[in-house]
Structures are given as C-alpha cells and as structure tokens.
C-alpha cells in the first residue's frame, strides 16, 4: 500500500472552514471521522486536505414548542439521550440506538451520519468497477452479489442503498438541514436533499463543494403522536438494515389524523412514501389500512436476482410497525 500524504487543518470558525474547503477542490471536511477515515484507508477517498470541524460551536440541541434544532456536530449518542428526543421523538431515538455501536455513536456526528457513504461492498473495493467511485466505470453490483442492495430508486448505473438509519425517521418527520456556503445560507428539506443515482451515482445530494451542514431542524409532532423505528437485519446488533421502517401516527377517536412513513434499507436514498401517508390519513387503524399502506410503500420496487425478498419483507415490516403503534396503550 502506498503512503499518501495530506494536509490537516483544524478550523476555528464556520467561516474559516467553509472558505478552506470551498477554495480547494481537493479538500474535504472531517467530523467524527468514522466514515471518512475508513474510506481513506481503503483508498476509496484520497483528499489532499482535511479540514477538521470538530471544534466548531455546532454541538448543541435546542428546543422550542415546535422544532428541535440540532447542531451538526452533536453526536448520535448525545442526541439519543436528549430529553426532548426521549420524550417526543421515540422513532429518532430508536433509530440512533439501533445504529453502529456505543463507541462509534460517541464519535459519529449527526452531520456526518446524514452524509455517510453507502456500504455497497464494491464501492469500497478499488479493484472492482463502481460508477459512484469513478463515474462511467460501470457497476460491479448489478452483475455481482446484490442481496443487500436497493429495490427502490435504482438506475442501470447504481443500485446501492443509503446506509443511514436516523435519516429515515428524520425524513418521515419532514426535517430539514441548514447549510452554510460562502456568504450564503439555505435550508433544504431532507425530501429534497438526497439525489437518486440516475446517470450520476457520484452525486448523492444537493450540497455544492464546500457547503457545510450547520444544523438539522426537526419538527416536533403533536403530543399524543405514537412513533417508532423497526430495523430488520441479519444479526441483532452492529449491522446495517435489510429493511427499516420509521412511522408516526396520531390516532384520535378511532381515526388516524396524521401519518408519517419512511423506509430504509430498500432505497438508493432514504425513502418517504407520501401515497402511503395519504392512505392512512382518515382511515381506521387496522389490517386493511396497514396492508394498503404497505402495498403503496413498496410500489414500483424492482427486484434483481438476489434482493427480491426485500419487497415482501418491506411490506411485512410496514404492517408490523403500524400495528405495533396502533396497539400502544
Ligand atoms: C462499523 C460501523 C458500523 C456502522 N453502523 C451504522 C448503522 O448501523 N447505522 C447507521 O446509520 N450508521 C452506521 N454507521 C455509520 C456511522 O453512523 C457514520 O460513519 C457516522 O455517523 C459518520 O459521522 P462522522 O462524524 O464520523 O462523519 P465523518 O466520517 O467525519 O464524515 C462523513 C462525511 O460527511 C462529511 N461531513 C461531516 N460533517 C459534515 C458537515 N457538517 N457538513 C458537510 N459535510 C460534512 C465528511 O466530509 C465526510 O464526507 C456505522 C459505521 C461503522 C464504521
Ligand atoms: S451499486 Fe453503486 S456503489 Fe455499488 S458498485 Fe454499483 S455503482 Fe458502485
């Protein structure tokens, strides 16, 4: 293996960090490093300059009546332990605690989590063709072993799943990211943040080079909302999802008044299903409504040789998650 040298800079302010990375096409941010450093060791990612953002004042959680504002450097473990998350956002807490391991969760930041790269094994193997790693090279997974790969949002150029657990409930709840570029700030809902691969699998989201996520803004559902995250995986811990479901239901007087639903492990991006939410709203909670929502949730799914089982597993996981919420006292 070749030793590769790179420059390391620790940023003292958000402005400095954004300027450093924007000015240099070979520069990248370093947060907890739990994704970034692995990719460098595997020679998948070769930055010439790393700008460490861990000392920036973006490690905070603030709540008002309607919104939880989370600094991008808040760790997964810190967010999971926050009292508002424990009290009002069980689906977010569960998704965080079902991810990675305690050691990793103490290092991993929320900004880094949303931007983690796919776990497609071919992406991480520089000896195999990968359009995401090298545009135009081809896709080793489509003709390779793709049991873990996506059934929704795929293209002939890439079928890799998005790996984040917590992005799934955040998407379901309608969360946004606050983004700082040079001299400008913008807020982008997660529904518009991620990009399906199409013909450009290397473009995964709407961030321009040098833009920094500074905060996440999570709308708080009304009190009385029941919510949860179901993660189905090959082993009970320390494993990515085969299928996951984040759901929130507000049930009043035998009717579903509000519904939020998103899936993980099945899509090339975290997958929200507005059609399933529409079907649930106004319906009586029960097997018929849940089966209809599950059918809609996996609508348009495309099976390949090894991953067709995810479609039925996804439907069953949706029904199970919704039934569990409906049965809550
Ligand atoms: C063994 C293992 C198991 C795991 N299991 C799970 C799991 O089950 N579920 C799950 O969801 N995740 C899992 N993860 C992934 C883990 O959650 C992520 O690696 C972590 O959240 C990334 O955060 P970080 O702060 O370490 O990011 P880094 O590795 O520092 O950065 C990740 C990427 O984000 C960019 N970046 C970071 N912060 C910002 C910002 N604020 N603005 C702009 N760009 C930024 C970096 O430049 C880099 O491209 C696992 C990881 C490992 C190593
Ligand atoms: S599925 Fe996507 S990430 Fe995996 S090898 Fe194909 S192009 Fe690369």
CATH topology of the domain at 226-327: Enolase-like, domain 1
Q: Taking Cα atoms only, what radius of gyration do you get, to the nearest Å?
A: 20 Å
Mean pLDDT: 97
Strand order of the largest sheet: 4-5-8-6-7
Give the topology:
Elements: E1 7-10, H1 14-23, E2 27-30, H2 36-41, E3 49-52, E4 61-63, E5 67-71, H3 76-81, H4 83-88, H5 90-97, H6 102-107, H7 110-114, H8 167-173, E6 176-181, E7 184-189, H9 190-193, E8 212-219, E9 226-232, E10 243-252, E11 255-264, E12 271-272, H10 274-280, H11 287-297, H12 309-327
Parallel strand pairs: 1-3, 2-3
Antiparallel strand pairs: 4-5, 5-8, 6-7, 6-8, 9-10, 10-11, 11-12
Helix pairs in contact: 10-11, 11-12
Iron/sulfur cluster (SF4) binds next to loops.
Summarize the structure.
This protein is of the alpha+beta class and 329 residues long. The chain has twelve helices and twelve strands.
Report on the architecture of this protein.
The chain has 329 residues and is an alpha+beta fold. It is 29% helix and 21% strand. The chain contains twelve helices and twelve strands. The strands form three sheets. A five-stranded antiparallel sheet has the order 4-5-8-6-7. It has a four-stranded antiparallel sheet with strand order 9-10-11-12, with helices on both faces. The longest helix is centred in the last third of the chain and has 19 residues, at 309-327. The termini are far apart. It binds flavin-adenine dinucleotide (FAD) and iron/sulfur cluster.
